[in-house]
């Protein structure tokens, strides 16, 4: 990029290598000079831990900038607000409810079976 304009530019920081963390763009100053301006890395943003989709309602910042945020800015006011999307939270709630229902049904069936066994033993004793 710098070669197209015909001027040589030098980095303004200590790092002299073209690395991912040292990306630069050319900037025209009001005085007519060309200088390098450091570009910050693009943030990936928070994603759901279950499905991997981007979380809605949370800012896309670098990790250090998240540390400077308040708690209310880091999460959504919902269970698993800052780590799971609404769809996955709903699936978890439904799954937990169905598991509890299954336990109740199993208990009812076990009670019925034990009552049937008790009645069978009473009938067999009365026959003797």
UniProtKB/TrEMBL annotation:
InterPro entries found in the cross-reference section: Ribosomal_eL34, Ribosomal_eL34_C_sf
Organism expressing this protein natively: Polarella glacialis
Family annotation (PANTHER family): 60S RIBOSOMAL PROTEIN L34
Domain of life according to the entry: Eukaryota
UniProt name for this protein: 60S ribosomal protein L34
A single cellular component GO annotation: ribonucleoprotein complex
Family under the similarity heading: Belongs to the eukaryotic ribosomal protein eL34 family.
Keywords: Ribonucleoprotein, Ribosomal protein
Pfam families: Ribosomal_L34e
Any one GO biological process: translation
GO molecular function: structural constituent of ribosome
């Amino acid at each position: 990029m710098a070669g197209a304009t015909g001027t040589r530019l030098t980095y303004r920081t200590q790092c002299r290598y073209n690395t991912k963390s040292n990306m630069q763009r050319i900037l025209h100053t009001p005085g007519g000079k060309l200088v390098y301006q450091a570009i910050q890395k693009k943030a990936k943003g928070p994603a759901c831990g279950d499905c991997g989709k981007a979380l809605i309602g949370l800012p896309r910042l670098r990790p250090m900038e998240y540390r400077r945020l308040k708690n209310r800015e880091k999460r959504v006011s919902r269970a698993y607000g800052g780590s799971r999307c609404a769809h996955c939270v709903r699936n978890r709630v439904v799954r937990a409810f169905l598991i509890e229902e299954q336990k109740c049904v199993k208990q009812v069936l076990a009670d019925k079976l034990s009552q049937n066994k008790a009645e069978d033993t009473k009938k067999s004793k009365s026959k003797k």
